[in-house]
Write a structure and sequence with these properties.
Structural class: alpha/beta
Radius of gyration: 28 Å
Mean pLDDT: 87
Largest sheet: 7 strands, mixed
Low-confidence stretches: 288-293, 681-685
Strand order of the largest sheet: 13-14-15-16-17-19-18
């Protein structure tokens, strides 16, 4: 593929493409001055969208950072101004905006500027002094230079494909309850428009049907409403409900709920929707820019298997917004690794975990070995359902991360990304951070320890933060993740690292993994994370004496504050997580008065209100030392005593027969705690 340096050549190439009348979309790359190109706007840039920061008088323009808001729209021609650094995310989005037969004009920086620390590169380099050149941009240039745009027109019956999809949606929405349908497709397949056609047909069959639509962004549903409008269906007949409303309230009068771009919605919220609404149609882009399709499907499908085992999946394959085999779609997919996958199980075969090879990989190695890069990134994609093209740029360009992998032969079966924190890796003004006036990029765990507990020493200690750890989906549950983590810790010791941390959206499965590896919780985020839908937890494992001092102080402050936080910001935290977060393994003996007061409530007739302070102390002690309790006991102790929920709440959550039934469960749980305290019946971690 040519990279043009002359604006006249660009104009001629675009005009030739338009005159050909081809359905294929064109990628045109330009490395000259934009002013010269703009001067030819009447020839080159008619009916265009400009994405960039320069102040040209374009009729239709969008700042790079805001381009995600245009998803779902179509433009004849799109200009991406990447002269100050290529935005991976903007390139991905813009590739989906170009209409059939249209042009994506990519204005590239000069080859020399790849070694310049532009604003776009600064977002990922982190440690500017270590930057030499953008490997992401180097790889992109090489792809462009060697790319041969092939287009083999194929006869595809789009209408038949769409008709079958619409028929299946109508059947699922009209058929038996509690059988959700999940529609997945790559971008440009007309998925959202098909939802609109299905709604049209449903309303024609049953005019009084109550249908609701939800998505993370109202604009994501434009194609749905367009289909309705073209078939003369008033948009007011279908309600739009924001996701938080759908999750916070179970809308009883909704007969059918359509959830579009589901990969952008945290899986816990999707699970709630699947459980609460009787007829749900989920749809999502699998290789799109709202999130990773495979990470989404692996997690969400597992949830559906448990909640709604009779759910169905439907896939759209034929593109409708552009031609089948479109060269621009193929290029964007290759450039951003939208289809990245690890090796199949058939290729890897049976593995012996004791013979796996631990390696550190450099960004240069990944850049020059496309097979290695595809495997590595494919595992990251599968492990995190909101991986974006910017993550690829971070992987190749960040100077503050280390990349590790476990190999079975030539195949990667597990990967780990580490961020280097503290130890002078960044200039941190601790006092400003503590006062909430400043944040330091790339220092997430260290910054939180300073901001939350005034632990200034975290900035001077050397630490690694595990950003991502992922095991091949077919080999999970075999201890490979723990093996990789142990190898990373050994590497950290060799580099005199004081502690290793990680920050993630906490759930029972993940916290269990980290606790079993010896990590302890030291901070819980007050707001739920946008990606995971969970509170973010920070866990630490110390490797040196200095690290142990820091961990001890952070842990003490966390445990001192958590019981208070459980009554306010974490009042609705899952009870199982309450128990896990409070676990220490040992505690001082309880005062005899606390034990006697608990007995007076559980085994006699003293009132709950009179004994509640003692009951709280006993429950806290049981969680701290790790008493092995049945699930119902854990839940009622956490709900009533730790989170101070009302009796009505407890009855509703546990399904008890009124307050009397709930108190009976609480008394039974208290008796188990008393037995454990008396007999040292303490559960293992």
């Amino acid at each position: 593929m040519n990279i043009y340096e002359s604006a006249t050549e660009v104009a001629a190439a675009i005009q030739k493409h338009l005159d050909s009348g081809t359905a294929a979309r064109m990628l045109c790359c330009y490395q000259g001055g934009l002013a010269e190109l703009y001067a030819l706007s009447t020839i080159v840039l008619a009916d265009y969208l400009y994405v960039g920061e320069d102040d040209y008088s374009f009729d239709d323009r969008c700042a790079t950072i805001k381009v995600g808001g245009l998803l779902g729209r179509e433009y004849e021609r799109v200009i991406v101004d990447a002269r100050s650094g290529v935005s991976a995310r903007a390139l991905g989005v813009c590739g989906g905006l170009v209409a059939k037969g249209g042009v994506l004009l990519l204005c590239l920086p000069s080859t020399e500027r790849m070694s310049v620390l532009t604003e776009e590169v600064k977002r990922f380099a982190i440690i500017a002094g270590d930057f030499t050149q953008s490997l992401f941009e180097r790889r992109l240039f090489e792809l462009i230079s060697n790319y041969i745009p092939l287009f083999r027109p194929a006869v595809i019956n789009f209408e038949k494909d769409q008709s079958l999809v619409v028929k299946s949606i109508v059947s699922a929405a009209s058929g038996r309850a509690k059988r959700p349908l999940v529609l997945t497709a790559d971008r440009g397949r007309g998925k959202s428009y098909a939802l609109g056609l299905a709604i049209v047909e449903l309303l024609q069959l049953r005019p009084k049907l109550n249908i609701a639509l939800t998505a993370m962004r109202r604009t994501a549903l434009d194609a749905v409403y367009l289909a309705m409008a073209l078939h003369h269906i008033d948009a007011s007949r279908v309600r739009y409900l924001p996701v938080d409303v759908v999750v916070a309230e179970s809308i009883a009068e909704v007969d059918v709920l359509f959830v579009d771009e589901a990969a952008a919605i945290p899986v816990p919220q999707l699970a709630y929707i699947a459980e609460r609404y009787t007829r749900v149609i989920f749809s999502s882009t699998t290789h799109g820019y709202e999130g990773s399709g495979r990470g989404f499907t692996q997690r969400f499908f597992k949830v559906l298997d448990k909640l709604r085992p009779q759910w169905r999946r439907l896939t759209m394959t034929a593109p409708i917004r552009w031609a089948h085999g479109d060269p621009l779609e193929a290029f964007i997919s290759d450039a951003l690794l939208l289809g990245a996958e690890p090796h199949d199980r058939e290729v890897i075969g049976l593995i012996d975990s004791s013979r796996l090879l631990f390696k550190e990989l450099s960004a240069e190695q990944l850049t020059t070995d496309e097979t290695l890069l595809t495997q590595f990134f494919g595992l990251l994609v599968g492990a995190h359902y909101q991986t974006t093209p910017d993550d690829l740029r971070m992987l190749l360009d960040s100077t503050a991360i280390r990349r590790f992998a476990l190999f079975a032969g030539d195949s990667i079966v597990a990967v780990c990304l580490l961020a280097v924190e503290g130890g002078g890796s960044a200039a941190i003004d601790c006092e400003q951070v503590w006062q909430g006036r400043r944040r330091t990029r790339g220092q997430l765990a260290v910054q939180q320890l300073i901001a939350s507990y005034r632990l200034y020493e975290a900035a001077s200690l050397r630490s690694y933060r595990v950003m991502r750890i992922a095991v091949h989906y077919d080999y999970q549950g075999q201890g490979i993740g723990q093996q990789l983590l142990a190898a990373v810790e050994n590497q950290a010791r060799l580099n005199s690292v004081d502690f290793v941390s990680s920050v993630f959206g906490v759930n029972d499965e993940l916290i269990s993994f980290w606790q079993s590896a010896g990590y302890q919780s030291v901070k819980l985020g007050f707001k739920r994370d946008n990606a995971s839908g969970e509170h973010s937890v920070i866990v630490l494992r110390c490797l040196t004496r200095e690290g142990n001092v820091l961990l001890k102080e952070a842990r003490e402050q966390f445990l001192r504050a958590l019981p208070h936080w459980l009554t306010e910001p974490f009042r609705f935290l899952a009870p199982e997580l309450v128990a896990r977060l409070l676990y220490v393994g040992e505690a001082e003996q309880l005062d005899a008065y606390i034990v006697d007061s608990a007995k007076a409530y559980a085994q006699a007739s003293n009132s709950y209100d009179n004994c509640s302070p003692a009951l709280y102390s006993l429950a806290l002690h049981a969680f701290v030392i790790g008493v092995d309790l049945p699930e119902v006991a854990v839940r009622i102790l956490a709900l009533k005593l730790m989170q101070r929920r009302s009796w009505n709440d407890v009855v509703s959550v546990l399904g008890c027969c009124g307050q009397k039934g709930a108190e009976a469960e609480l008394k039974a749980a208290i008796c188990l705690c008393l037995d454990a305290v008396a007999t040292d019946n303490i559960g293992e971690d």
